[in-house]
Design goal:
This protein is an alpha/beta fold. The protein has helices at about 25-35, 50-55, 75-90, 105-110, 115-120, 170-175, 190-200, 215, 225-235, 260-265, 275-295, and strands spanning about 1-5, 45, 60, 70, 100-105, 130-135, 180-185, 205-210, 240-245, 245-250. The strands form two sheets. Strands 4-2-5-6-8-7-9-10 form an eight-stranded mixed sheet, sandwiched between helices. It has a two-stranded parallel sheet with strand order 1-3. Strand 7 (about 180-185), helix 7 and strand 8 (about 205-210) form a beta-alpha-beta unit. Helix 1 (about 25-35) crosses helix 7 (about 190-200) and helix 3 (about 75-90) runs parallel beside helix 5. It is globular. Residues about 1-5 have low confidence and may be disordered.
């Protein structure tokens, strides 16, 4: 296919300029970082219905610099399994991908795609699955998902969501996949290390990226990276990895930053009765549990 901007063909350019993504989109930043981490690698993407597939643009052009297969909403791991199997059957060529990567939002991961995600993880398929988590169905108006945090207002929870966020890394760790980890667009060195490390592993690998959505979160586009940094520093979004479902390793300890700063910069929480003391207590328990799990490897 012809590219929207064919002059942007450097090895580390995954998402070309000229795409239709919103300003400050955490997914866009993550795609840029992924492209840099995978420079000179042969890989292809499988993308279900989500903002990520809209980013490709209108046929017959594309904003992506690698082969992309659009899958149905619920089935990107199944599609990727088939691509990986075909790659194994065919002799190596200059145009064959060494790595098959699912790139999906939280709707296609936590909810609609959970069955095929669990099935591929249980079979230990040789694919990399990356969920960019903007905590809503961002492509269809901003409805709540099971990744939406408690008290967040969405188009389907105008009074604030009542339930807590699903722990997707814990679910994947329970499948005993070879590798599962969180990624932060505010920690590029850690991001690159984990992606490069995963290339040396055979089997199912899972990544969760905290991806602010200025439209859905009601935030300033320029604040996206700082929001992720606040989330890591306050313990809202722990930065860690799990090897073989048992070996937990914490990559960045919370530094005592008050989570109130994270919530205050998002208008999706405006007007909600957020019990910050309860939030702090919950975060302390969550991060204490992670430390306890990490201590078991010593």
């Amino acid at each position: 296919m012809n590219a929207v901007n064919p002059e942007y063909t450097s090895p580390d350019c995954l998402l070309r300029p000229g795409n239709t993504n919103c300003g400050g989109c955490g997914m866009s930043t993550a795609l840029t970082m992924l492209g840099r981490a995978l420079a000179n690698e042969h890989y292809s993407l499988v993308i279900p219905a989500c903002c990520g597939i809209v980013a490709a643009g209108a046929f017959p052009t594309t904003s992506y610099n690698v082969p992309v297969l659009a899958s149905t909403f619920a089935s990107s791991p199944a599609f990727a399994t088939g691509v990986a199997a075909v790659n194994e059957l065919n002799p190596r060529s200059d145009h064959q991908a060494d790595h098959v990567i699912c790139w999906a939002g939280d709707g296609g991961t936590y909810d609609i795609g959970m069955a095929t995600l669990s099935a591929a993880a249980e079979r230990n398929e040789d694919i990399i699955y990356i969920c960019y988590d903007n905590e809503i169905y961002g492509n269809t108006g901003g409805q709540r998902s099971s990744a939406t945090p408690a008290a967040a207002r969405t188009t389907t929870t105008p009074g604030g969501k009542g339930e807590t966020k699903k722990e997707i890394i814990e679910i994947l760790a329970a499948h005993h996949v070879p590798y599962a980890a969180t990624l932060s667009i505010a920690h590029p060195d850690d991001f690159r290390r984990k992606i490069r490390q995963s290339l040396e592993i055979r089997g199912f690998r899972f990544f969760l990226i905290h991806a602010p959505c200025p439209t859905g979160w009601k935030t300033e586009p320029a604040d996206s990276v700082e929001l992720v940094s606040l989330a890591v520093r306050s313990g809202v979004f722990p930065l860690y990895e799990v090897i073989d479902g048992l070996d937990y390793r914490i990559n960045a300890d919370p530094d005592g930053t008050d989570p109130a700063a994270y919530y205050a910069r998002q208008k999706r929480f405006t007007g909600q009765e957020i019990d910050l003391e309860r939030v702090k207590t919950s975060l302390k328990r969550k991060n204490r549990r992670l430390r306890e799990l990490a201590s078991l490897r010593h």
